[in-house]
Design goal:
This protein has a domain at 96-200. By secondary structure, it is α/β, with parallel strands linked by helices. It starts with 8 loop residues before the first helix and ends in a 6-residue tail after the last helix. It has 15 helices and 9 strands. Helix 8 (237-258) links the parallel strand 2 and strand 3 (288-293). The strands form 3 sheets. The protein has a 5-stranded mixed sheet with strand order 1-2-3-7-6. Strands 4-5 form a two-stranded antiparallel ribbon. Strands 8-9 form a two-stranded antiparallel ribbon. Helix 2 packs antiparallel against helix 3.
């Protein structure tokens, strides 16, 4: 198999030049990366490549933030930094999701149970057995939603009932964010071959509905032509309406630049419905639905309702999954979950919306090609993270700390999907923009349209066609 990496003197020199420029940008924006831009041992190669370390790129005079490749810039800057890094040469601790995958591969649990456990892990639910819950969570298990969507048609009604709460909209009565979820998500896994022992997942007694349960939702009405934004009213309709208006306004700002047709943008999303009779389950119309959630809005956890903060940022696939003739589509629509508390950090909310909406736009090109079982191709998160820098240039210092705090310190290859590494791999689409303009990223997604479900090689080839991984 061809190794996907920048190789040869010219390829490395061009990437190092881009990284050197990036280091100057970070320094000018007030971050604190190391004084030189180091390209660690396997940083631009797959984990198995064993590539030698590249020379360090020296830093020069400070450069203003806007000196990087120009792009649409909306708003102002935030100073919050990403999470922890993987130190050079260190092996990351297996996550809950890793342990679940190992149990599945070893035949200790079946596929449905693995999806159920991953749902518990993603949302921090206490139903996750202790042997998995004791490990750190990956936090963002984006492939989970796609894998459940693809698996549902093949499952029994009972198994569908177990998994459906994780992929329906928060406004639905059987959502993980609704009180009736206790009867679905807490169903015991029957003991038997390939299933978890009954002691690992038991039927819970009915829970008392906490006072924070969301029984009433406020939506944006006609305030946005392209999005329908929802927030829990929670006895304070004025606050809910104000928060909905803020998010609707931010979304309208990013719609035009993000949905320009390629090569100027990603093109529009696929509507989740059409005509006058779109079901309530799909938001009531074809606009993209965005749900503002916050701790306490609806997720059962230990008998109370609480939402882990790190779980409230996701793009969940949504119909259509088949065409009028009944053919299975590679594309889909999607809806977005965001953390309502981010409104107090307006720049962070803007980045979250850009990132998750970019995922919805990716699904309009190809939802299934970049997903292989429980794994997402690294370019999905990498390009969505890059989008934060492109569409919010003034606030890009936050994103660039992924490079300084994670990518530079990691021994993992560019294509690794371990932990948060795909976010740090935004450096490659950033490099693509430096080399060939943002059109290279958008055109890569056009090329990805041809990829068959789970064909990572075809996805990588589409990227390679726009900015070669190797000097030829």
């Amino acid at each position: 198999m061809r190794r996907m990496r920048p190789s040869g003197t010219h390829g490395r020199a061009r990437l190092l030049s881009a990284i050197a420029a990036l280091t100057l940008i970070i320094s000018a924006c007030g971050s604190s990366p190391s004084s030189t831009a180091r390209l660690g041992g396997g940083s631009i190669a797959p984990e198995s490549s064993g590539a030698a370390a590249a020379p360090a790129a020296s830093a020069g005079p400070a450069t203003p933030p806007g000196s990087a490749a120009p792009g649409p810039s909306i708003g102002t800057q935030s100073s919050t930094a990403p999470g922890s890094s993987v130190a050079a040469g260190a092996s990351p601790q297996p996550s809950r999701q890793d342990l679940i995958a190992t149990a599945l591969a070893g035949g200790r649990i079946d596929h449905v149970t693995s999806l159920l456990y991953r749902g518990y892990a993603h949302f921090g639910m206490p139903e996750l057995p202790g042997e998995f819950a004791s490990a750190p969570s990956l936090g963002d298990d984006a492939a989970l939603f796609d894998e459940i969507v693809d698996a549902l048609p093949t499952l029994s009604a009972a198994d569908q009932q177990r998994l459906r709460p994780f992929i329906v909209r928060p406004t639905e009565p059987d959502s993980i964010f609704a009180s009736k979820t206790a009867g679905a998500a807490r169903l015991a896994v029957a003991p038997g071959k390939g299933s978890a022992p009954a002691a690992r997942l038991t039927v819970a007694a009915p829970l008392t509905v906490a006072a924070t349960e969301c029984r009433d939702w406020t939506d944006s009405g006609n305030a946005s032509q392209h999005f329908k934004v929802w927030a829990c009213t929670g006895g304070d309709p004025g606050s809910a309406a104000a928060d909905v208006a803020v998010v609707a306004g931010l979304l309208e700002e990013i719609w035009t630049p993000m949905t320009r047709m390629p090569p100027g943008g990603m093109g529009p999303p696929i509507p989740d419905g059409s005509g006058p009779n779109v079901s309530r389950e799909l938001g009531g119309d074809g606009r993209i639905d965005v749900y503002e959630l916050r701790a306490g809005d609806g997720l059962f956890r230990g008998g109370a309702l609480a939402v882990p903060e790190g779980s409230i940022a996701a793009a969940v696939p949504s119909p259509p999954y088949i065409d009028a003739a009944g053919n299975v589509l590679k594309t889909s629509s999607g809806f977005i979950l965001v953390n309502r508390a981010r409104i107090a950090e307006r720049d962070q909310m803007r980045r979250d919306l850009i990132h998750e909406f970019f995922h919805v736009l990716q699904k309009a090109h190809n939802r299934t090609g970049p997903v292989r079982g429980s794994e997402n191709h690294w370019f999905g998160e990498a390009s969505a993270t890059w989008a934060e820098t492109y569409y919010f240039r003034a606030g890009s210092a936050f994103v660039h700390t992924w490079f300084a705090s994670v990518f530079q310190l990691s021994h993992l290859g560019l294509e690794s999907t371990t932990g948060d590494h795909p976010y740090a791999a935004y450096i490659w689409p950033f490099f693509m923009e430096q080399e060939a303009g943002a059109a290279a990223v958008f055109n890569a997604w056009v090329g990805i349209e041809a990829a068959s479900p789970g064909d990572f090689r075809a996805v990588s080839d589409a990227i390679d066609a726009q900015a070669p991984f190797a000097t030829r």
